[in-house]
């Protein structure tokens, strides 16, 4: 009976398990999971989709607003530039600047110019501060702002740019003084229409607040709390639609160099405090920098809060400014937040309804299981007569019937176990007797086992020695394979390097890695000095660049002279060592020759160990370095060939550049010649036209008085003048032909007239040298010809 109680206890300990959740709770949890998981997934997908669509629409609208604002500012700038270009051509400005300086003051022209400038300024009395006329020295001659008259603006960009380029210009926002508002200058050159010479500059000074007005007009353009911001090329706020107090501050603190440069160009006030120069919004600056390739970004813009804004940036075409249009994300994402709240309320309602239904269904389904669980608990507690009530014929009823059958079988089995226990106790007694008999045989077997163990130990020792020998052979094989793989990889790396210095550094670095050494060197032969010179090194030889040895001197000199590899077991104590103290710390060393394709030694490569390393070089390592040196020689030949090719290419480029420079010089000289001919021809045609005109007048007077001799002479003068004028025109035609602008026309001329003009021209010359000029013309020469 005691044995039966133990088995009942064991069965109880096996079956009873702690319950964390009741069956009803699990059913309720399953209901809620099935109902809420699809709803949550659908709400998540819907929220992400709507956020993406709304954000994309907002970015599109922001970029359109930014582009529109940028176009408006570009239009404002272009309109003013077109106006200044037109106004600079007014005749009274040109006449005034043509006048000598001593005749300008108090003249009627000066009065007309001042009246015109005031009329131009009246176009915008709010933002146009002044109109001014500057002479060729940059001196303010006439200004609607009388305080500026007489000031020197020759060093200002608004004077220099139009004067030097001949084009209208617009300045960045500038501060003329701490007491005046920031301004923008529009300026254009005033040129003489006859000669094309620049006479002066027309300048307009605008109040920079006009930019703020253009920006503020765009507030709420695409919705509530949307606004624009204008930045210059240093990311300084020029205008702000939301916080105008940030104007003329930088987005992030400026560097000292940038501050000095901006102060010199009057783009910020000098000696301003740090908090007056910049805010600190690095996200905004990063977005503006990337705006040419990524016009949409997010950044905090409000200096008083951490709210994030969606921003779109557009660049101006005329000046290097950027317009950023922004809107708080909370504004255009408000519908999503409202929908999220609605979804949460709906989810809470569904959860409550599903939970109530799940509780009712769970209790109904769990009631038979609970009753069956109570019966099982009684049975496992020791009440073998406990039985379950069969509530129905479904799976629960089948489970209860199976439990009742199992309970009856377990009761019968326990009775059989009690009888078997008594039989086992008798069997145990018999086994105890047999064990004592077996003990005697076991003692005898132990002696035999000890003897056999000794034999096996000897056999294992022999096998262990064989295994060690085999492992050593395999390690040696792996090391050689690793050397060959590293040698192959190193060779490929060297073949791709064509710069000689880089190749030498690579060669000695890889050689030291292959031989696992701390020091290495590459000597190259200097044919002119007949010396070996260090061109690359690592370890102790890293700072030996330029060190040289002679034929047969030291380790490298012997390798050079014998063209054979050499190993020295202890270089510091070797009799042929060099005397420098640097080599006192070198232990084992080896070196191999570098040879060219013809077999000539072109250098020596070697590696060395510290004298306290306790390691020596073997023939395997020497052979490895020798193979590496052969491959390195091929790489050196390639690099030298590449260097020679590069030098030849460089020489050809220099020759081409010299030819190009000579061509440009010749073209410049030709252009100067053409300019000279044009100027000279212009200067000569004016007096010639006067001579021809006076000769015609005198000839008409002589004809009226009947002086035939004077008529003939004056006719010769007029003919010679026209001939000379024709020659000057021909010179101009030559310049046009060289410029490729000469057009050929077919005309009819009288050959007789030309011959007569030639005779009249050269007749005075013939008379000076006492030579008679005879001319004869046949009737054929009078025929008109076409050229």
Give an account of the 3D structure:
58% of the residues lie in helices and 14% in strands. It has 787 residues and is an alpha+beta fold. Strand 15 and strand 16 form a beta hairpin. The protein is flat. Residues 1-19 and 779-787 have low confidence and may be disordered.
Question: Strands, helices and their partners?
Answer:
Elements: H1 2-15, H2 23-87, H3 91-98, H4 101-104, H5 108-121, E1 128-135, E2 140-143, H6 157-165, E3 169-170, E4 183-191, E5 198-207, H7 209-216, E6 227-231, E7 237-240, H8 256-264, H9 274-277, H10 282-290, E8 296-300, E9 308-315, E10 322-328, H11 329-332, H12 334-380, H13 395-495, H14 500-515, E11 519-526, E12 531-538, E13 548-549, H15 554-562, E14 566-568, E15 586-595, E16 601-610, H16 619-705, H17 708-739, E17 748-749, H18 751-768, E18 785-786
Antiparallel strand pairs: 1-2, 1-5, 3-4, 4-5, 6-7, 6-10, 8-9, 9-10, 11-12, 11-16, 12-13, 14-15, 15-16, 17-18
Helix pairs in contact: 1-13, 2-12, 3-5, 12-13, 13-14, 13-16, 14-16, 16-17, 17-18
Largest sheet: 6 strands, antiparallel
What structural class do helix, strand and pairing data support? alpha+beta
Total DSSP helices: 18
Morphology call? flat
Order of strands across the main sheet: 13-12-11-16-15-14
**Sequence stretches where pLDDT stays below 50 over 5 or more residues:** 1-19, 779-787
Fraction of helical residues: 55-70%
Query: How far is it from the N-terminal to the C-terminal residue, by CA?
Result: 150 Å
Mean pLDDT reading: 79
The number of strands is 18
Strand content: 5-15%
Rg calculated over all Cα atoms: 54 Å
């Amino acid at each position: 009976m005691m044995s039966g109680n133990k088995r009942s206890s064991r069965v109880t300990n096996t079956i009873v398990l702690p319950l964390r959740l009741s069956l009803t709770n699990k059913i309720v949890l399953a209901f809620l999971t099935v109902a809420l998981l699809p709803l949550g997934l659908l709400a998540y997908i819907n929220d992400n989709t709507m956020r993406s669509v709304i954000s994309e629409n907002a970015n599109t609208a922001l970029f359109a607003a930014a582009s529109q604002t940028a176009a408006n500012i570009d239009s404002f700038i272009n309109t003013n530039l077109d106006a200044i270009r037109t106004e600079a051509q007014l005749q009274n400005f040109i006449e005034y600047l043509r006048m000598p300086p001593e005749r300008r003051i108090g003249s009627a022209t000066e009065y007309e110019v001042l009246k015109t400038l005031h009329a131009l300024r009246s176009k915008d009395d709010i933002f146009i501060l002044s109109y001014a006329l500057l002479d060729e020295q940059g001196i303010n001659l006439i200004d609607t702002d009388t305080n500026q008259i007489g000031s020197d603006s020759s060093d200002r960009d608004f004077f220099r740019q139009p004067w030097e380029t001949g084009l209208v210009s617009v300045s960045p926002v500038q501060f003329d003084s701490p007491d005046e508002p920031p301004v923008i200058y529009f300026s254009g050159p005033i040129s003489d229409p006859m000669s094309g010479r620049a006479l002066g500059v027309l300048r307009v000074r605008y109040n920079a607040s006009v930019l703020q007005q253009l920006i503020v007009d765009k507030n709420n353009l695409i919705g509530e709390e949307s606004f624009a911001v204008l930045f210059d090329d240093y990311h300084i706020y020029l205008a702000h639609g939301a916080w105008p107090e940030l104007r003329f501050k930088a987005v992030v603190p400026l560097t000292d160099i940038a501050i000095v440069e901006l102060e010199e160009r009057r783009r910020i006030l000098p000696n301003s405090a740090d908090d007056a120069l910049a805010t600190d919004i690095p996200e905004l600056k990063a977005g503006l920098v990337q705006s040419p390739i990524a016009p949409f970004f997010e950044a905090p813009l409000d200096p008083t809060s951490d709210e994030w804004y969606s921003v779109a940036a557009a660049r101006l075409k005329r000046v290097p400014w950027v317009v950023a249009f922004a809107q708080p994300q909370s504004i255009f994402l408000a519908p999503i937040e409202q929908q999220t709240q609605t979804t949460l309320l709906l989810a809470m309602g569904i959860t409550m309804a599903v939970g109530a239904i799940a509780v009712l269904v769970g209790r109904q389904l769990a009631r038979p299981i609970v009753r069956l669980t109570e019966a099982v608990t009684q049975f496992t507690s020791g009440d073998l007569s406990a039985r379950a009530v069969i509530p129905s014929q479904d799976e629960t009823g089948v489970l209860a019937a199976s439990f009742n059958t199992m309970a009856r079988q377990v009761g019968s089995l326990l009775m059989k176990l009690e009888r078997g226990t008594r039989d086992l106790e008798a069997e145990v007694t018999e086994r105890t007797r047999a064990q004592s008999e077996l003990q005697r045989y076991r003692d005898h077997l132990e002696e035999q086992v000890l003897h056999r163990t000794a034999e096996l130990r000897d056999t294992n020792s022999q096998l262990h020695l064989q295994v060690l020998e085999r492992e050593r052979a395999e390690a040696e094989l792996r090391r050689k394979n690793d050397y060959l793989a590293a040698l192959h990889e190193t060779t490929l790396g060297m073949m791709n390097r064509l710069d000689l210095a880089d190749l030498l550094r690579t060669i000695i670095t890889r050689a030291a890695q292959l031989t696992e050494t701390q020091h290495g060197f590459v000597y190259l032969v200097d044919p002119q000095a007949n010396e070996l010179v260090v061109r690359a090194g690592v370890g102790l030889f890293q700072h030996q660049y330029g060190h040289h040895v002679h034929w047969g001197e030291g380790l490298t000199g012997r390798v050079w002279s014998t063209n054979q590899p050499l190993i020295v077991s202890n270089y510091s104590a070797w009799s042929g060592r060099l005397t420098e103290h640097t080599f006192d710390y070198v232990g084992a060393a080896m070196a191999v020759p570098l040879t060219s394709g013809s077999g000539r030694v072109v250098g020596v490569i070697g590696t060395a160990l510290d004298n306290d390393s306790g390691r020596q070089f073997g023939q395997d390592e020497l052979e490895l370095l020798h193979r590496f040196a052969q491959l390195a020689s091929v790489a050196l030949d390639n690099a030298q060939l590449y260097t020679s090719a590069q030098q030849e290419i460089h020489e050809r480029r220099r020759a081409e550049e010299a030819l190009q420079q000579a061509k440009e010089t010749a073209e410049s000289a030709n252009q100067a010649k053409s300019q000279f001919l044009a100027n000279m021809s212009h200067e000569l045609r004016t007096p010639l036209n006067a001579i021809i005109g006076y000769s015609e007048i005198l000839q008409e007077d002589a004809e009226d008085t009947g002086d035939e001799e004077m008529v003939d002479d004056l006719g010769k003068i007029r003919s010679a003048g026209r001939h000379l004028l024709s020659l000057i025109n021909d010179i101009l035609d030559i310049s046009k032909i060289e410029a490729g602008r000469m057009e050929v026309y077919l005309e009819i001329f009288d050959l007789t007239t030309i011959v007569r003009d030639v005779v009249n021209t050269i007749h005075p010359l013939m008379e000076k040298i006492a030579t008679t000029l005879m001319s004869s013309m046949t009737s054929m020469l009078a025929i008109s010809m076409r050229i």
